[in-house]
Design goal:
The protein folds into 2 domains: 178 residues, Rhomboid-like (Rhomboid-like fold, Up-down Bundle), CATH 1.20.1540; 44 residues, no CATH class. It is globular, with a radius of gyration of 23 Å. 54% of the residues lie in helices and 6% in strands. It is mainly alpha-helical and 246 residues long.
Length: 246
């Protein structure tokens, strides 16, 4: 996980660099890129721009307000796996862009990374529940409590912003958390050292499980730690160990 977190940092740093370089070119050309590669509802010619619009902005204030949340939520969405994050980003961009393309007024050109921000936010908030990761669940609770105000610009009638793009991105992030959830089956209490782990064997097509007795010796001569045998906090210990906190 630490390796993936390192990759996530550089991925988001590179993404921000790309967005700012595009903004420099856009500004130098009097925002022609935003006009040419933005989304216009119902215009078939702009439909492919669902993939370019998130890189474009209308002003320096626009990109500055998006950069911080984009990096924070993007990193939190990516640190469990960069490959999964790329799939999530594509899903969110499509959900946000298509919502704008189908439902926005036809005289509005929409650009900006805020759809991605809302998608990453929704994903981070609920991912822990779907993946059953305690640390991610706690992160989701903290993010939801700290940034709940963001939802005020994802409701109908919000002036000056594409609330449809925000709402579509949020829906895409929630859907992504479900579609990209961790489907690997988790053996109860599995542990390479055998501390409180259940020993599972498959014989004759049937599963047989038995927990080692406290104080019973392992094959290597060590004994089962009674403080962790059958401990319901085993998953928490594993999560904290993954983070290097144990």
């Amino acid at each position: 996980m630490i390796n993936e977190a390192r990759k996530a940092f550089f991925v988001m740093f590179g993404f921000l660099v790309a967005v700012w370089l595009v903004q420099l070119a856009n500004y130098a050309d009097q925002y022609a890129l935003s006009r040419n590669y933005g989304l216009v509802s119902g215009d078939l010619g702009t439909l492919p721009n669902v993939l370019t619009a998130p890189f474009l902005h209308w002003s320096w204030a626009h990109i500055e307000s998006n950069s911080g949340p984009l990096f924070v939520f993007g990193f939190l969405a990516a640190y469990r796996g960069v490959v999964r994050f790329f799939g999530l980003s594509l899903l969110v961009a499509l959900a946000s862009g298509l919502t704008v393309w189908f439902l926005e007024r036809g005289d509005v050109e929409t650009v900006g990374a805020s759809g991605l921000i809302f998608g990453y936010f929704g994903y981070v908030v609920v991912r822990g529940l779907f993946d059953r990761h305690l640390i991610d669940t706690l992160i989701g609770v903290v993010m939801a409590a700290s940034f709940a105000y963001l939802l005020t610009v994802a409701v109908p009638g919000t002036p000056g912003v594409s609330w449809l793009g925000h709402l579509g991105g949020l829906a895409g992030g929630l859907l992504g958390a479900w579609l990209l959830r961790d489907r690997r089956s988790r053996a109860v209490g599995t542990s390479p050292s055998g501390d409180g782990a259940e020993i599972t064997a498959r014989t004759g097509g049937h599963v047989r499980s038995e927990a080692p007795q406290v104080g019973a010796p392992h094959a290597d001569g060590s004994q089962v730690d009674g403080s962790r045998a059958g401990n319901p906090r085993a998953d928490l210990y594993k999560e904290l160990g993954d983070l290097g906190l144990l």
